[in-house]
Amino acid sequence: MKATFHGHAVVSLETEDGTKLLFDPFINGNEACNLNVDTVEADYIFVTHAHSDHLGDTVEIAKRTKAKVITTVEIASYLSSFDLETHGMQPGGSHTFDFGEVKLTPAIHGSSIEIDGKPHTLGVASGILVTADAKTVYHVGDTALYSDMKLIGDLVDIDLAFIPIGDNYTMGPEDASLAAKWLQAKRVVPIHYNVLPLTEQDPENYIKMLDKDVGFVPEIGESFAV
Ligand code: NI
Ligand code: MN
């Protein structure tokens, strides 16, 4: 499996059989992102929660690519109104797809969408574990540090974790360094920094807080092997 970081919380994975998985495709308005809404490829789109910097351009991309959207039941229901193909799940639930297994995890965070200037809550926020090609990747989503990350780390053999470090809306670097330790991820890529105001962080400083050779700051758009 190959992984690519595209800025903020946008991540893509490609399995050995060529299946393309796209996470939290916030492309328009994301100055760090190398992708284009009109050309990005996806077979499946994952949405951790409804905030606009995660739901992003999901509707437009899924309409064009016919990608199936895997997300919480409430967001799936909302997206169904756009005639998209969806698969709704909830934290704690797992399901086996053609490419591998998906499990949602808790995330301590909101999940609202703004309609006519008013927030509407769409269920709870989630993190997403994907196991494919005998590797497990964890997109932690937007979340506070929480102690069940220790449990997830004990139960799941995580090869790669994408962990938010931006602070203010999510964990900051110190809490995110504890998250990396508790999750026992073999490799950690920091996300959710320097795109939104109030999330300015130095990712290199963050990876210095982790065990040797765990933290990794990939070039935007550059694929690496999981
Ligand atoms: Ni959020
Ligand atoms: Mn966010």
TrEMBL record:
- Keywords linked to the UniProt accession: Hydrolase
What is the superkingdom listed in this entry's lineage? Bacteria
Q: Which organism is it from?
A: Candidatus Atopostipes pullistercoris
Q: Please list the residue ranges annotated as the Metallo-beta-lactamase domain.
A: 7-192
Q: Name one GO molecular function term.
A: hydrolase activity
- Pfam families reported for this sequence: Lactamase_B_2
Provide the organism lineage as a comma list: Bacteria, Bacillati, Bacillota, Bacilli, Lactobacillales
Q: What is this protein called?
A: UPF0173 metal-dependent hydrolase H9808_00810
- Write down the HAMAP family for this protein, in alphabetical order: UPF0173 (MF_00457)
